[in-house]
Amino acid sequence: MTVKISSVGLRGLEGYRVQVEVQVRPGVESMVIVGLPDTSVKESKERVLSSIRSIVSSGTAEKVVVNLSPSEQKKNGPLFDLPIAIGILKEKNYIKEQIPPDTMFIGALSLDGTIERVEGMLPALIAAVKLGYKRAFLPYDPRIPIDMLSGIECVVVQHIKDVINLLCGQPPLSLQTFTPSPIQEPPFFDHQKDFSHIIGHQFTKEALEIAAAGGHNVLMSGPPGCGKSLLAETFPSILPPLSKSAQLEVISLYQLANERLYDPQMAPFRHPHHSASAIAIIGGGSYPKPGEISLAHHGVLFLDEMAEFTKKTLDMLRQPLETGKVTISRVHSTVTYPASFILIGAMNPCPCGYLGSSSHYCTCSQKQIKAYRNRVSGPVYDRMDILLSLNSVDLDQVTGKEETSLEIRCRVGKAREMQFTRYQEQVTNAKVAYDLLIKTSPLTEKQQKIIMREATKNQWSNRVQIEIFRLARTIADLAGELEITEESVWKAIQLRRTVFRELR
After folding, report:
1. pLDDT tens digits for range 36-90
2. What domains can be seen in the chain, in order of their start residue?
């Protein structure tokens, strides 16, 4: 007889159904695991057998064969310790009740039968909901917001005896109490940096508001000390809080990468140094892990001194910026991670940084300037929706009170609500499919001619023309307009400023 126990395997952030098939037959005490297990799965033999010995004095004086189906899919991680042990106990008739096929098990085992948490439990639970499982046995992990999961009953257990008692309809001996994750106050009041603290840069602030409302990429150029980094680091304070589904995705990615997430309600902000390797930015390794672009999912990736990053690394951003995901292929596995983020780049206009400055003299030759600017390739440059040239602010000429991030964030939130109503999904103007965008917000013939005329004059690619269209839609949303206006088109064109065009 063969017993089948349900579990979930992980391929990156995607989960798939795994049937743990267990068969016990006469022979020397041993265990064989088949179904393309990796080293961590193979090592579960001793953990499982020792755990069973801790509760069953006779042990398993027979040969145990375990098949992890589907057999063609590589299995990794100690997620399958608990379902293998439950399968053996069921096969040996220590568990007499039937185990429903919509009940799944995940967790690692220690030698004394204690069930330990492992990496990737949250994405496994999210996958379990999608696969139709109704009940899940798992170890306690304070990082998992079980209270946010709907459609599945999560049974938190501490020891394998607890699982046996629950399956047999008895009260558990040592069930660990589950404490729901604390619901914090809205995080957007806790930002340390606020736009009201930044003096001047009114046009740049308005451009960043448009970027936040529509999810557009931004490239800023200006001399050292003009405020590029400060503006970028303050940018998350005007982003609305993440939705429930987005929070679960972000938490899952950070757990897979073994990174600390300070507040799941806030849009993540990643700021890698320009010396970071391509693998650190994109993700990878022998067993692929999420990189900076995936950790910035639903948030912001800020590349300060963008021209100092290697050209290879910057060019590797092209696919994620276009598709919102990254596929990493290695010998052991091929995984796909989500990577939908707002890219903010900051760079100097020349190697010394003072080209066009009114206070310093530029010492760079034309050849040096051209080589420096060419570090950002044309395809990457085309994917930056908003181009800004910054200058230092004359504090003597600044008057009036600066807007707070809260005021800006309220307008951004209203624009995002208009986009949700229009597209019926949580997607921004910068990321929505072009077919849906043109269907819901068609351009007039006059607006098309304006964009085509400016594109011819500035030698813009087709991609840039579509970006102008998307920007105009966002500007109209911020103004509360249901249709794209001629004014919003001209304002979108202005965000590809002629001053910045000299960088190419």
Report:
1. 888 888 889 999 999 998 887 655 568 999 999 998 888 888 899 999 999 999 9
2. 3-167 (3.30.230.10), 187-425 (3.40.50.300), 433-499 (no CATH)
Average pLDDT over residues 467-484: 96
Q: What is the C-alpha separation between 292 and 338, in angstroms, rounded?
A: 11
Q: Where are the extended beta strands (E) located within 113-171?
A: 115-116, 135-139, 153-157
d(CA 173, CA 44): 25
Q: How many CB atoms lie within 10 A of CB 121?
A: 24
Nearest of 356, 425, 351, 387 to residue 501 by alpha carbon: 387
Dist CA 301 CA 313 (whole Å): 14
On whether the CB atoms of residues 313 and 306 are closer than 8 A, the answer is: no
Q: How many helices (H) and strands (E) does the chain have?
A: 20, 18
- Asked if 207 contacts 386 with a C-beta cutoff of 8 angstroms, the reply is yes
- ω before 70 within 30° of 0 (cis)? yes
Beta carbons of 56 and 48 less than 8 angstroms apart: no
Q: What is the pTM of this model?
A: 0.88
Q: Would you list the DSSP string of 384-420? A: -SEEEE-----GGG--SPPPPHHHHHHHHHHHHHHHH
